[in-house]
From TrEMBL:
InterPro entries: GH (IPR017853), GH_1_N_CS (IPR033132), Glyco_hydro_1 (IPR001360), Glyco_hydro_1_AS (IPR018120). GO terms for molecular function: 6-phospho-beta-glucosidase activity. Keywords: Glycosidase, Hydrolase. The active site is at 376 (nucleophile). GO terms for cellular component: cytosol. This is 6-phospho-beta-glucosidase. Belongs to the glycosyl hydrolase 1 family. Its EC number is 3.2.1.86.
Length: 479
């Protein structure tokens, strides 16, 4: 057996889910309708999440997987007990905004929604699991989209502030780690999912996206301010869909293209971690003729309330080229990139690059000098269970092992400060990108298919016992 250096004492091992991908119970106990509810599985999913096709309610002829999902709402005690059995130190989850404020603009929160999350957090605490809570994980009330236009409207800052005050006050002492917006850079690639944006004919989509991004950035700073005021022990992080861009060749033009692509993603974190708009972004806005409305007070908020740590998802690296004739792309986390001939791919075409995680960790650490937290990483695959629901998912173990090795190197050899690691979809859930159940990430198999059939029975995969051993050994036993 090969042993590795231990991870830092107190390292937060765990797993991650999102409310809209696991809770179900879309209309239970006063919950309102959200953008992520009305996104169906099938060919129209991508046009809808990118704001190109309008779907503001359920329509005939479609299946909406978020309606029931895996019913974490009804199974949370069972699921958290399984997380505890694996030894989780933390559980990353998100709040469904419409459970707390069904329309989004109410004066008073929905008590049933607050009580549900209080119960979940207390269940975590019972097992010594630290909740890591994403306030908004691709989640916007449909009422705010229909009546205010989503995050293009500055009023959403006030509604988000109201949400945050309700959460920070009610859950003081139960939750200490918060993330403001999941994968905030996704607003550029999946704007309906990321910010409730649907583009009307003739609109300047780039201007709308960056205006909405400004509102989210100000809201994030405001949330950070309030969190620290309510409880000085609160730690607030931002969240990036990460993955370093490699130049396709050593042609300087390719290197420059890769730098530009990286900047497009890091722009959001530059603001959240450094407290101001970078010059390259200001130049870009001017070049594109984007007229963004921002107040002097906005800029003070951004400057004075930067995040405590930087969290990110990592599934694969990406490739950039200045040569527009290159067409061979690979799938990825919503947005594709050029194919890297040196890497293998998953069943969904996502390229597998463990060293890319070490590169990404070092890049983020060098750029920001703030603690890092990997809050999504994992392999989506078709799992074939036996009659007992057991899956021999050695391919998942191999994937995670190699990524954990490079995390270890980043910490112990490179000096990166990394607080924790939550694998994505620690229990099988609905895919955000495709809406599928058969694209599974979990240590726990859930009996449900793409059409919503199945008993929802939970069962442990081979990776369950393996991850339990990894956590118990603090990363020293990866066999």
């Amino acid at each position: 057996m090969m042993t590795y250096q231990a991870f830092p004492e107190g390292f937060l091992w765990g797993g991650a889910t999102a409310a809209n991908q696991c809770e179900g119970a879309y209309d239970a106990d006063g919950r309102g309708l959200a953008n992520v509810d009305v996104v169906p599985i099938g060919k129209d999913r991508f046009p809808i999440i990118t704001g190109q096709k309008k779907m503001f309610d359920f329509e005939e002829g479609y299946f909406y997987p978020a309606k029931e999902s895996i019913d974490f709402y009804g199974h949370y005690k069972e699921d958290i007990a399984l997380f505890a059995e694996m030894g989780f130190k933390t559980y990353r989850m998100s709040i469904a905004w419409t459970r707390i404020f069904p329309k989004g603009d109410e004066a008073e929160p929905n008590e049933a929604g607050l009580q549900f999350y209080e119960n979940v957090f207390k269940e975590c605490r019972k097992y010594g699991i630290e909740p890591l809570v994403t306030i908004t994980h691709f989640d916007c009330p449909m009422y705010l989209i229909e009546h205010y236009g989503g995050w293009r409207n500055r009023k959403l800052i006030d509604f988000y502030e109201h949400l945050c005050r309700a959460l920070f006050t009610r859950f003081k002492g139960l939750v200490h780690y918060w993330l403001t917006f999941n994968e905030i850079n996704m607003i550029l690639h999946a704007p309906f999912m990321g910010a409730g944006l649907y583009f009307e004919e003739g609109e300047n989509a780039e201007e709308v996206k960056y205006q909405a991004a400004h509102h989210e950035l100000v809201a994030s700073a405001l949330a950070t301010k309030i969190a620290h005021e309510v409880d000085p022990d609160n730690k607030v992080g931002c969240m990036l869909a990460a993955g370093q861009y490699y130049p396709n060749t050593c042609n300087p033009d390719d290197y420059w293209e890769a730098l530009q692509e990286d900047r497009e993603n890091y722009f959001f974190i530059d603001v959240q971690a450094r407290g101001e708009y970078p010059n390259y972004a200001k130049k870009k806005f001017a070049k594109l003729g984007l007229q963004l409305e921002m107040t002097a007070e906005d800029l003070v908020l951004l400057k004075e309330h930067t995040v405590d740590f930087i969290s990110f998802s990592y599934y694969s690296s990406r490739v950039a080229s200045a040569d527009s004739s290159l067409k061979e792309t690979t799938a990825g986390n919503i947005f594709a990139s050029l194919k890297n001939p040196y890497l293998k791919s998953s069943e969904w075409g996502w390229q597998i690059d463990p060293l890319g995680l070490r590169i990404t960790l070092n890049t983020l650490w060098d750029r920001y000098q703030k603690p890092l937290f990997i809050v999504e990483n994992g392999l989506g695959a078709v799992d074939t269970p036996d009659e007992n629901g057991y899956v021999a998912d050695d391919y998942r173990i191999d994937y995670l092992r190699e990524h954990i090795k490079t995390m270890n190197q980043a910490i112990n050899e490179d000096g990166v400060e990394l607080w924790g690691y939550t694998t994505w979809g620690c229990i099988d859930l609905v895919s955000a990108g495709t809406g599928e159940m058969k694209k599974r990430y979990g240590f726990i198999y859930v009996d449900r298919d793409n059409e919503g059939n199945g008993s929802l029975k939970r069962s442990k995969k081979k990776s369950f016992a393996w991850y339990k051993k990894v956590i118990a050994s603090n990363g020293t036993d990866l066999d």
